[in-house]
Amino acid sequence: MAMANIGRVGLNVLPAPWMGAVVALRSLLLGCCACIVLLLW
User: What is the pTM of this model?
Assistant: First the structure.
């Protein structure tokens, strides 16, 4: 929960061009974590 709040604050602080990159990176990280969890499950 704290991580999500930090991410939202970071998005508000960052300039517009970086928002897309940050969102893409976060979604990519979430996808990798999901794949790892599924593989280890």
Answer: 0.45
